[in-house]
């Protein structure tokens, strides 16, 4: 069975290579930045309100604030903050937002138990591996069933993080994973309505994972067959091929943590390849966007079902979140402005006639034979100019993905855009985790950045 084997690794001795440490720190820093940006934009007020209302013992701090609540409540709020702007990282193979579920559990339980920075970092690496591997075992399989892979896989990752930091043994951790599986879910119904449930999914997953570990520690049991069934998570929630060996194969030798990508733009990852290809085509044409007559994109079928859904108005999105899931609207905004940031998706920006007009002249064809998973697919776009000139743009994969990582300057620009002038202090605090006695410096740096920084600028990072 998979769960006992995975649990033994989760709570066992861990030797993390320096490259994996560096990747994990980069993602934790990016997640802290997106959370601070969300606090500054009041992007997750319902989750903060509810977390503060839940209260509980002052075990953990809501990231970007100085509010202390129970660890599960803190994870609910922090997970929602990390994901609120849709600017957090993505693992292409699993199409999962790993940091949004891992960081909240690691910080909340780490603070609760008084863990050192090294212990928190190790737990985060464990969480990254679990989230990415559980999701990647069924590429786009949860999405095909109308579920958000981040919440499905995230409950297991958070349970693993909480189990390791909580000092649970392998048998109890197996129960925690089994209990977590009964809390997996996350409907994609928001795609058709613009509802904010997607923002909540990582927070709910992280909170549920912590509760699963606590329940297991208190004596509750969960099925050791939660992954391999019968009636396991893939039987119930996935559609399409499933490779269960992916979950445990090469644990401690092959590190999925290094394959997670960091977003340059706060919009759905599945639109990024087309956005980057369109940006490339316009640069090749070396003309203003006003001269673009039409745009035609080649789109992966799994991407098209999410960001090119013909049942929604993709040129006049109903909400900021609907705009983030409209390939035509996001491509048009990037072509016209040369950049895409948090301000691109302000409610007021949705009424821009120039973006709506160009978005209405963007078409696409679904790739009949894709060679890779959707989030790591190539992007290809054809621009037709007002004089009939045709210009092709191409990228091998989305910018920021594991195979095409953002450079240091782009990462710094993104962090400064989210965390403002106090970004360097936040960066120092996160990067100092391996040597930190506790989380106090990191939590204070995040709160200070959220309190004292001006509003984020429209431009955060470039491809």
Task: Characterise the protein shown here.
This protein is α+β, with helices and mostly antiparallel strands. It has two domains: 2-261, 2-methylcitrate dehydratase PrpD; 269-395, 2-methylcitrate dehydratase PrpD (60s Ribosomal Protein L30, Chain: A, 2-Layer Sandwich). Helix content is 50%, strand content 7%. The protein has 20 helices and eight strands. The protein has helices at 2-11, 18-40, 45-54, 71-83, 98-113, 117-136, 141-144, 149-165, 170-181, 197-217, 233-237, 245-248, 272-285, 301-307, 320-324, 327-337, 353-359, 408-419, 423-431, 440-452; strands at 60-61, 68-69, 90-91, 260-261, 292-299, 362-366, 379-385, 390-395. The strands form three sheets. A four-stranded mixed beta sheet has the order 6-5-7-8. A two-stranded antiparallel ribbon has the order 1-2. Helix 2 (18-40) crosses helix 4, helix 2 packs antiparallel against helix 19 (423-431) and helix 5 runs parallel beside helix 8 (149-165). The model is unreliable at 457-463 (pLDDT under 50).
